[in-house]
Design a protein that fits this description.
649 residues; alpha+beta; Rossmann fold; 2 domains; 8-stranded mixed beta sheet; 30 strands
Amino acid sequence: MATAVMALALGQLAFATQAEAADADRVAVRADSLITAATADAAGDAALTVDVYLAGRETVALEKFVKAASDPRSDGYGKYLSAQEFRQRYATTDEDLAHVTDWLTGSGLTVTAVPSNRRYVRATGRVAAAERAFGTDLRTSAEHGRAPATAVTVPGALRSVVAGVSGLAERRILTRSFHGDGMPAGASAKGQPNAAAPPGAVRAGRPCSDYFGQKVDPTKPPAYGNNWPYAVCGYTPSQIQSAYGVRQAHASGVDGRGVKVAVVASYLSPSVLADLNTYSGRYGLPAMKPGQFTQVEPAGGYRWGEECGEPSWYTEEAIDVEAVHTIAPGADITLVTAASCDDRDQYEAVNKVVDGHLADIVTNSWGVNDERVNSALFDAYHATMLQAGATGIGVYFATGDTGDNSRITADGKPVTAHPASEPLVTAVGGTSLGIGRNGEYLFETGWVTARSDLRDGAWTPAPPGNFSSGTGGGTSQVFAQPSYQVGVVPDAIATRHGGRGRAVPDIAMVADPATGMVIGYAQTFPDGVRYNESRSGGTSLASPLLAGMMAVADQQAHMHHGFVNPLLYHYANRGDLQDVADTTTRAQVRADYVNRIDDTGGVTYSLRSMQFPQTIATGRGYDDMTGVGSPRTAYFLAPDPDPERTTAR
């Protein structure tokens, strides 16, 4: 930053003159949604914080570099840049940064932060100053709060430098964590200045099965001509390891050691490391060694009291770190937490990981269900993913737990989640997984759950009942089909919205809460807080499990796979991936405690069916519930046989 500050001091006067001369030459940029209804002017002295996203430079060359570094058929495969080399080649220049900061300060705003890769400039100030800077009117309405009423613009001299801006609108885009049903929100921190209490306690209702199909109750009404087993209590780490074929790898020392995995979430569970070690001790996993687990918190602390369901993020962090450690017990884990669930804060955390190369693999079990609302951050995420691809970092995002999302969007239309729909991330979908008595893989199908409750001796509504939850998937309405999907994704999926769109997910692992994994963490009981174990699911589980698989694959291959999608689609028909094509109708009976912790308040029963019609479906080859399939073994991505195309660790 010293060079940038010097450039600012030397160029301030000259650029101010240029900006004044070009004031009439302004260009519109991506920004917050506009208010179109009649509104009142926003108070000019109200405070705000804006992020101005910068485009970087040589983006065409950078796109080509990333494509070559990620394509197993390219001579540039696996040849990555260091973070410093990336900044020298592709980051915004000192001169352009100085122009941006001068423009903002000249408008009356104060620059407060610029990351090392110069992906954004954060500035604070008053509404009146922001209106001057961005050539817009900020107004307020009961429905939208404060937002721009006219196009957001920047000086024409910055047309190739500024990609977009967020923060002008008062209503923020909040992400949500994608863990499945059965996980309580717990006590809210809304209105509190400090950390929230741990989430409310929950236990899997009994009876439940130790493995799929173990306990069948003939007194429960049949469905589809069969009596169905009780849902699993929650698969143990050893069962998950066995089903996905990593036990043998662990025995030979291939357990992710030497690979760094980052988990990005919001807030910070104060007991996350203690919970992980307790969990590990109970299930035969090694405790984290000194230096193996690291926490990175936001410089400005957390914004407690947001509408983020803070305790649910404590649960999320337990799922993430325990899932990664289950598959890759030798990998280092860095938990990077955002100040809130605001998408801007989450982006800042992801960018921090990539910019500082804090990890080789980044798992994110959160997102915005409707990608159509997130335009201000599209270019920012894409720019950071380009840096990740260029420097050998693989970034994974869960696709969500509400199926095609048509049941939750205002217009009832199917949509995909963002950032999972970004073409330079690996979108992780979910499956329902059957594991047998001896840990054997029985079946796997795309996760979609329908629910019928037991009432007056019958399943109501008649099975399959009502949609409950399921893996996110579908076709993007924002992003075009990337080249790696051509020839693999069926035309019917790619052209669903006209043109050819990016399809998600790319790959999948177990996510169905009814065939989920046991997770342990501090929970709030009526008599206090203590460690407890719950059955967990959602694509929040699938993404960190896959991150663990990739850590093992990185170690085995003696290289960082980085952005793995071109390799996944290249190997889609090679046999390294399990084609999840099973569409057999199955069900389980789930028992739930009314008070969520024991049977003293009674037990309710529901039938959880594994198939339900929606716009996405499981099928042979690529499908928009499970992508190209699920990993068959720890060696599901064999090293490229050409030694000239690998980067030794």
